[in-house]
User: Which sequence fits this backbone?
């Protein structure tokens, strides 16, 4: 069994603790947090797991093979680097780090050390995202026409990051996960607003141009009184609607769309008609995605292979986020991804 | 009674015909369309209303006091001008014309002639929009924080205009209608895509900055297999969700949001908490908005006053659309409204 | 063309008028109502259709080949009989009459005279009901296991009938329409309540035992503030959910259920597991059912054949209703259908 | 702290374990199940809680002050009696026992021994049920007019009981909890069906007459592919809809209904009109009801008082269930509650 320590007992840490305990291949040894009472409270009074307030103590423990880090984003770089230097495999919350350059250093470090570096892009481990990826890669939707994601709810205003860095990593990761291998984001614009004067954007709109010419769009918002988590993936043959808040119908595959005329001239004359076909709601298993994250982390360590959402996918997500942040800071100018990654 | 002629028996014309016939103050005399069979078919075999294929014939009829025009946008300028010159009051479909400059000429012409020029911004006559306007103007939502509209469905690709000119006029008109008098759009960016190669944008995202600093956003899309018509109006005190496809709950007023710290420094430290209050779904009458449009048109003629959505509101909507079209044509650059209107 | 008169300009009559006017094979000649102003108001000021307050005048008009009757249920027997005696084909609103015995007389009279007698079981002409019938008859759902209908909303308390006679005819007609030919209702119980002291049941629950042993159940209610119109048809292989208020998904076919053990002993030990398969939402045309009613009425007259919902189906529905009324009057005792029909 | 043992590690037991561990006033000492591996698996590898396969061992432990029993219904009587005889307070899953007579013995035994006997009617501890009770008792809905509950989903066919004993206890308990003190069930009819030949009803409809003349109705079903958990409580002034599967709107209070004429004669002439008022969705805390059950159990022990859902409420629920079972066995005859309880 792989000895594991969880670092960070705040908002997401308890979920890591719970799922780690339910993963047979993992042996949870420590929960580490600067606030010892918080860590004890997460474990509860009946636990045999140890508590520490000092991550150095944990990194020094030879029974710890791997760490799972759920601390504020600004601490990721130092903690991940220290863990890798101590020879530990690392699972880190999104975003990997706060800059592409820092992230690239960590990926290199992990590679040199032969350690697993995994980014917890939880949504990529949902049965819905896996099914979408499968459908796209099998050509079931035809060519990708548009991607539109809305991820809004009443959110806690983060002390260190705006809504873009808080929520859009999910969408950038989903996009990275489901796109065909030859299609990549090439440019980004982002618009945002801070109507409450918090010093950071609480509402943001992100446009991402893909190498295929397709426009992807993401709406993230901390101020919405209703919660929406819907991704629409339009294809030339079928369109997928992923409503993550509809447990009995998370995915719906619409066999409908606009029929194109074969002749380009006819297209321009808009001789285009509807096709109203059936809708298929595929049966999907109901399971917690984070359990699959943990299982893949453990298997990657055991098998010496990259996990599904490895450091490289974390880096690709960072490239989009950093471009978006630059666009936001420059009034919505278009920023090329290449300018970030090279 | 006011003698009326409807010009255009295409997609929207039949709705004008039906509602005109149900308006006591109007006497529908003519339905005019280049395609006589289409006009006859709209009236049906039991009607006493006359059919014509020639709008000059109608404009020459002294029994006709007013015309309602539902023809393609490119024809609006000539038809409205001719009608005004013939001394007829005019109700015209959105958009008023295809350019701000042309629209301004029509508004001037109507003013000079002392005739009513009304733009059919139907959604502004829905009980929902009227209630929203009332709530905002009474201070019930506090300060406006954000405005987000999604108007998507499988739409007929128009031969003459893209999705922006087809659908966004609704949102620009709603925004114009509900905003406090001292808040106006000042700049616009628009991004769009034409994934089917139709020669016009079928998916578009519009950002509108208001003079108060607030960001309004509109998503219009002809390729979505699901129909969504939702406007969210976020306020510092309450937030309104208008879902026009939910007949039993079109408006929901959320008494919840993010509580601001009074002290600016605290705001920047994000010492901000939730408020989860009740939701109120106000009782709204169920009635067809177009009936109210017709009634207001008739009353404006009779009373010699401007209708709720007069030529000036049509012009303000045109300014936003023209700025959006320019931005779309220039890769999403920010376009100032002032550059359009002056 | 078939000359038609509509009798009754109350709640449902306007729908008959509108759909008759849109049916090419019909020529609407009269609208008849005791209240002339109401009849004129239904037709509107632009109509060429004649108005009468005297049904004898209409029955005497040789240009009238057929009548469509939408008057209170207590008047059906006399009006239909008079129309048949005058040699007119008849379309009559549900219920056919107020008693099985009276209904049987009308069916006989129509048969003797060689005239079409059709009962307006509108829901049987919806694309949804037709699809359900097709699926059941093709064996797609396996054996019928249960039928459950909820038809509730804030309804106008009728002066002459309780909620059972007002709403349950729809369900009895749907059941009659979709059942395999060899399965028929055999017994009924009904429970009801009159919490407002109106003198008639405003809430009622109807259980119908079928000859196959299956239990069908219907909940009708005039006091519900929310409107529900949902029929669930459970089968051994698939289950159909018909939600008539969900335009984008009226029918959903669930390929899921409880897997039976083949061995009866195992069944009794409840060794039964789940099957969670896909859900299919078939594309259905959106059209007004009453238009199809009118078209079938016209075609039945022209072709000299029975319409889909003829007098016999009206009679079968009456048998269920009359049994239900007796059960209601006797505290919910079980009433055999045979006791009504023989 | 109160020493607790949980008996039964099957379907519901894990929820008792989890919530007991989260209740500060309780100290979970044992989890007991005939299947030791199952018990260990429920606790997981990191727990300090002890496991036993022998309930006598647990009842003999003086550190155990109370037991929570989640075993099959047929075992309740013996286990609860043994626990009471051993001087332990008892929380037992619904139904209290399998017969009213047995239940009455347990209630007496607890009373004699001065021990808390609580029945886990979980739904009575939801914020929704508590709010409903509060609204009814404060007169906010006026007089109760009807109660309708639908509790259906694809359910595991139970080896020992039909759907009525499995699901209807929830509704009987909710009804018991929310009714004004002077209104009680007086008679019951139940109809059911076993379309799969499992030897027990899988679909059942229960009508419950209340002492006020009101009809309550419950639909329970194990064969429905869609899950519905909706209770509608109609009042003369307002109507409450509780949809337990709609997290953002579990309760909706409709200020609408049918306006009654004051004069009884007018009522009988059905001079009754609509009132379409606002809908209020009250803010409710989101918390697990079972946590509140545990807290009330602990507080009842500490304070020497009856819990909210004590043995007497368990008995009242049993009276309804036993009457329903008799009715089901006798073809739906009406069974008086008094015949059960006296």
Assistant:
């Amino acid at each position: 069994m792989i000895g594991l320590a969880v670092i960070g007992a705040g908002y997401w840490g308890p979920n890591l603790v719970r799922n780690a305990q339910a993963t047979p291949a993992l042996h949870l040894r420590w929960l580490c947090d600067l606030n010892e009472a918080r860590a004890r409270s997460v474990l509860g009074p009946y636990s045999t797991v140890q508590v520490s307030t000092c991550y150095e103590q944990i990194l020094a423990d030879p029974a710890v093979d791997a760490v799972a880090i759920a601390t504020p984003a600004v601490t990721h770089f130092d903690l991940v680097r220290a863990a890798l230097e101590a020879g530990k495999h690392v699972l880190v919350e999104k975003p990997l780090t706060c800059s592409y350059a820092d992230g690239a250093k960590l990926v290199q470090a992990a590679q040199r050390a032969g350690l697993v570096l995994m980014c917890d892009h939880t949504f990529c481990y949902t049965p819905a995202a896996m099914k979408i990826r499968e459908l796209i890669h099998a050509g079931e939707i035809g060519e990708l026409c548009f991607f539109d994601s809305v991820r809004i709810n009443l959110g806690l205003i983060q002390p260190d990051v705006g809504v873009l860095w808080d929520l859009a990593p999910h969408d950038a990761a989903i996009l990275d996960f489901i796109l065909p291998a030859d299609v990549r984001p090439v440019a980004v614009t982002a618009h945002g607003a801070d109507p409450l004067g918090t010093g950071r954007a609480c509402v943001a709109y992100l446009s991402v141009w893909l190498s295929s010419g397709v426009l992807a769009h993401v709406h993230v918002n901390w101020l919405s009184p209703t919660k929406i988590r819907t991704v629409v993936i339009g294809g030339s043959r079928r369109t997928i609607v992923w409503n993550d808040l509809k447990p009995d119908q998370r995915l719906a595959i619409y066999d409908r769309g606009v029929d194109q005329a074969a002749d380009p001239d006819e297209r321009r004359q808009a001789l285009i008609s509807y096709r109203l076909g059936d809708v298929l709601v595929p049966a999907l298993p109901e399971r917690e995605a984070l359990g699959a994250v943990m299982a893949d982390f453990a298997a990657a360590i055991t098998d010496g292979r990259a996990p599904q959402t490895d450091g490289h996918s974390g880096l690709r997500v960072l490239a989009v986020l950093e471009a978006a942040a630059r666009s936001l800071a420059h009034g919505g100018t278009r920023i090329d991804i290449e300018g970030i990654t090279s």
Remarks:
- The CA atoms of residues 123 and 129 of chain A lie 7 Å apart.
- DSSP finds eleven helices and 15 strands in chain A.
